[in-house]
From TrEMBL:
Organism name: Chryseobacterium phosphatilyticum
SUPFAM superfamilies assigned to the protein according to its UniProt record, in alphabetical order: Homeodomain-like
Classification via InterPro entries: AraC_XylS_family_regulators, ExsA-like_N, Homeodomain-like_sf, HTH_AraC
Keywords: DNA-binding, Transcription, Transcription regulation
All residue ranges annotated as the HTH araC/xylS-type domain in the record: 172-270
Protein name: AraC family transcriptional regulator
Source taxonomy: Bacteria, Pseudomonadati, Bacteroidota, Flavobacteriia, Flavobacteriales
UniProt cross-references to SMART domains, sorted A to Z: HTH_ARAC (SM00342)
Domain of life: Bacteria
């Protein structure tokens, strides 16, 4: 069966698949609140992995690079609902409720899990819109988003430091960030935003740090990692080329031979 992806209303997306599916790299400029209705999501982010299990609610902070693998449940279904908490809505909510924060969230955790009776019930209340038994008017859609914000804050007041932090990403260490995230096949524009830079500033700083343009460095870095995995971990390219940001296996083989002068097989079976 074909995957089902539906935009129920402007900021609510429902997805349903029936077999394991590998997602592409996604850049999330806004927070989003999700509920794993069925199946399981394996999320790779910031050099870490998180498993989102069935009946789990997850709040994902904005400005994230995430790659997913979606696994259907034993019954054969994968279902996930995601509602975007965009900056415009959050800023209006903060203004109306006189919420001001002097500093952003200081914790290191990237994904927040808040399984809670109220949150669970909230997502169940969206079922009529998903099943098309009720139409989501713009007014109703806005109310449902505001309800999500209310429930989150009631469940954990400290989340205000996450939701209402409207500061742009601060300038972070470019070398450390790129070495932790080179495997994400995303745009230079996204990398620039994530490191707190304009595109021109990112390219300028990148050339200074790495003495190379971003795309060239990314390709070289991914090939070097591939060499290590093949030579010392004895892994097959088919098992990891997507994980390193390569879109096409035949192109990977060509690029590998061009850089190292040997095929992957020759490297794998040569003496250390």
């Amino acid at each position: 069966m074909e995957p089902i992806y539906e935009i129920i209303f402007d900021k609510l997306v429902y997805s349903c698949i029936f077999e394991m599916q590998r997602g592409t790299e996604e850049y999330y400029p806004d927070h989003f609140l999700g509920f794993q209705l069925a199946g399981e999501t394996q999320a790779f982010h910031d050099n870490d992995t998180t498993i989102i299990k069935e009946n789990t609610v997850v709040l994902v902070k904005r400005n994230q690079l995430i790659r997913t693998i979606k696994y259907p449940s034993k019954s054969g279904n994968y279902k996930f609902i995601a509602i975007t908490l965009d900056s415009k809505t959050l800023q209006r909510y903060a203004f109306e409720n006189k919420i001001k924060i002097k500093e952003g969230y200081q914790g290191k955790q990237k994904l927040f899990f808040e399984p809670n009776e109220f949150l669970h019930s909230y997502f169940i209340s969206l079922a009529p819109y998903i099943n098309k038994t009720k139409e989501a008017t713009p007014r109703l859609a806005e109310l449902k988003i505001r309800e999500a914000i209310e429930i989150l804050l009631d469940n954990n007041p400290d989340l205000k430091y996450v939701l209402f932090d409207f500061a742009k990403p601060h300038l972070i260490d470019l070398e450390e960030f790129m070495n932790n995230n080179f495997m994400f096949n995303t745009s230079v524009e996204s990398f620039a935003k994530l490191t707190g830079r304009s595109v021109s500033g990112f390219k300028r700083d990148f050339a200074r740090v790495f003495n190379s343009p971003p795309q060239q460095w990314l390709k070289e870095r991914r090939l070097e990692e591939a060499y290590y995995l093949i030579k010392y971990k004895r892994k097959k390219p088919a098992d990891f080329y997507l994980d390193l940001g390569f879109e096409n296996l035949s192109h990977f083989y060509y690029s590998f031979k061009q850089k190292f002068g040997e095929t992957t097989t020759e490297v794998q079976y040569s003496k250390p």
